[in-house]
């Protein structure tokens, strides 16, 4: 049986943006009212549709007779009472801490790539669904932990299902390059478009303010880019993107290096890898070894060198990389809010070329997860696009990746940006 340490590493890789439980977890404490503006006496409100960071999206699963537990963990799903009933798959802190149950969670949480369908799907015999009602922010609850951004908006006067809406998603999935099959993103796109239109309709036809955090930003931006421009101009008043960079981050590289076989266990495994648009030729290397260095333009070679299976390298090149290269302006009024001034990985050193060992880390500026280069690149990739009529960048000194949506002062800035779109 795999050790608990290995299993926890596996789960971290499947979650990707969960660089550490403390960094990206949903908030656990009540939010004080830090002078946030409220909706009182306003004649109209632009509704908010929120896409959270991935830990706030919960998954349920049930097993069918087709499920076969891994040979080293025959206890997984062995009881007949475990088949056919829905149970909490993620977030399940109790199971993660149980050495007898954690292997089951890891096996049932992973995805597999189906070459015939050219797409990712659940493990045979495992059916999953996103917990909660699509359109409600109550589905972002992680056990008893409530998302602080939701709390801040509710304290400002927004009401779930009336002026505040949520779009939960399966964080294991990710948009594929245009033309590549991606049932999960296609389904999410249909539901999200219908939600935006419904939020507008129940609020007198007013366009919505789309708000995202972390991985939710990749989904929101890809959705906006692929939506017809007339639709965007009709239904999206503004986009507020928090803690999402244009170039990805490095911790994904070190996590993949430690357990390369997990690259095929989630469609989102390569989503946050550093982009050659930001970290390509002419930039300092991201990985240093005695024999050679790697920039983001050498990512395929790096993945092969750390032991990612050839199919994984191909999926990176054909599904994930084109999406990275296509990161561009949403062409709706946009505000990007990011933390800076926090030590952040900017280079990994594997001097002896042993990628299974813990690398020496060179730190630079950033939000603790996103390096400054990834954050600053937004000013060029989005702000420098001639089609982008309005762009604003807010950089919060001394604020972490999670702090952007949990620190009181940072939350006030987000709510103020949302209110900027609301008539007085």
Automatic annotation (TrEMBL):
> What SUPFAM superfamilies does the record tag this protein with?
alpha/beta-Hydrolases
Instruction: Kindly give the Pfam families that the UniProt entry links to this protein.
Output: LCAT
Record's signal peptide: 1-23
Ranges in coiled-coil conformation? none
Any one Gene Ontology MF annotation carried by this entry is: O-acyltransferase activity
- Spell out the InterPro entries in the cross-references: AB_hydrolase_fold (IPR029058), LACT/PDAT_acylTrfase (IPR003386)
One GO biological-process annotation of the entry reads: lipid metabolic process
Gene3D superfamilies linked: alpha/beta hydrolase (3.40.50.1820)
Q: Which UniProt keywords apply?
A: Signal
Protein name stated in the entry: Lecithin-cholesterol acyltransferase-like 1
């Amino acid at each position: 049986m795999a050790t608990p340490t290995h299993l926890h590493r596996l789960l971290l890789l499947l979650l990707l943006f969960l660089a550490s439980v403390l960094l990206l977890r949903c908030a656990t404490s009540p939010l004080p009212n830090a002078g946030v503006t409220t909706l009182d006496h306003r004649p109209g409100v632009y509704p908010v549709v929120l896409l959270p960071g991935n830990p706030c999206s919960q998954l349920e699963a049930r097993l069918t007779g087709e499920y076969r537990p891994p040979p080293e963990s025959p206890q997984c799903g062995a009881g007949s009472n475990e088949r056919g009933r829905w149970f909490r798959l993620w977030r399940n802190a109790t199971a993660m801490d149980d050495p007898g149950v954690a292997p089951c969670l890891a096996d049932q949480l992973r995805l597999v790539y189906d070459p015939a369908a050219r797409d990712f799907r659940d493990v045979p015999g495992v059916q999953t669904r996103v917990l909660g009602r699509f359109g409600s922010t109550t589905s972002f609850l992680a056990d008893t932990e409530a998302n602080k951004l939701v709390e801040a908006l509710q304290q400002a006067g927004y009401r779930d299902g009336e002026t505040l809406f949520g779009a939960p998603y399966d964080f294991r999935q990710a948009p594929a390059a245009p033309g590549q099959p991606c049932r999960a993103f296609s389904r999410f796109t249909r539901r999200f478009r219908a939600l935006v239109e419904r939020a507008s309709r129940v609020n007198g036809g007013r366009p919505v303010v789309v708000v995202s955090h972390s991985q939710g930003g990749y989904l929101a931006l890809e959705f906006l880019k692929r939506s017809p421009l007339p639709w965007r101009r009709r239904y999206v008043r503004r986009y507020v993107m928090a803690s999402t960079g244009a170039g990805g981050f490095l911790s994904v590289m070190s996590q993949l290096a430690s357990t390369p076989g997990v690259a095929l266990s989630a469609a989102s495994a390569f989503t946050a890898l550093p982009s050659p648009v930001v970290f390509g030729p002419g930039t300092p290397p991201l990985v240093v070894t005695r024999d050679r260095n790697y920039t983001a333009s050498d990512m395929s070679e790096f993945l092969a060198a750390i032991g990612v299976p050839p199919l994984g390298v191909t999926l990176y090149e054909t599904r994930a990389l084109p999406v990275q290269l296509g990161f561009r302006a949403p062409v709706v009024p946009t505000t990007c809010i990011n933390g800076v001034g926090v030590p952040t990985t900017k280079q990994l050193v594997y001097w002896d070329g042993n990628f299974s060992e813990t690398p020496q880390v060179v730190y630079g500026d950033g939000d603790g997860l996103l390096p400054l280069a990834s954050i600053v690149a937004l000013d060029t990739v989005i702000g420098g696009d001639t089609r982008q009529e309005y762009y604003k960048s807010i950089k919060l000194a001394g604020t972490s990746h999670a702090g952007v949506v949990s620190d009181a002062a940072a939350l006030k800035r987000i709510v103020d940006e949302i209110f900027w779109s609301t008539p007085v």
